[in-house]
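Appendix B, Record 12. Input sequence as logged:
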Amino acid sequence: MQRNLFLWSLSSLFPLRSLARDGRFTDDRKGFKVPVGEGRYHGHLRLQGVNANVIDLKISGKDNDGGFALFEQTSLSPGRGTPMHVHLMQDEVFYVVEGQYFFRVGADKFSLSAGDSIFLPRQVPHGWTQISEKGKMTVLFQPAGKMEEFFVAVSGLQHPPTPEEMRQLFAASDMKIVGPIVQPE
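Logged structural output:
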């Protein structure tokens, strides 16, 4: 009886081994840590354009087959934020670590403070403005899409972009500007 149980247990491992060969299941990938105040691949990305915030990439889509990208944003631009825009293929989540922000999602308006989070569904116009003097948020894009490339491109500009250049940068990253910078009410 014990032998049968052993053989049955052993046979249950074969499907897992075949998954590993397929690449759908593997133990050769490694976890990693990104220390506070650091970015995974690009260091600090200081944005040019609608705000002058600093973005640190914490987890890249390269780390998870494009499943998501996680950023930490240090907000240094009171009264500034993003124009109303749409992500064609991504949901977005913000978690406020410190400071205060005003968000507009479609026709709805939200005030967020430390500890608050907000979900912005794909294809729904949204934007935000920094209210406090300083702030910090974590931002998650799912799937990762082209957001890493967008932030690298915007931080690499040698001048603040014109509105047309900004529209082109958004479009190249599967986003569309659909309105002016969000203003708190």
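The two ends are 74 Å apart (CA to CA).
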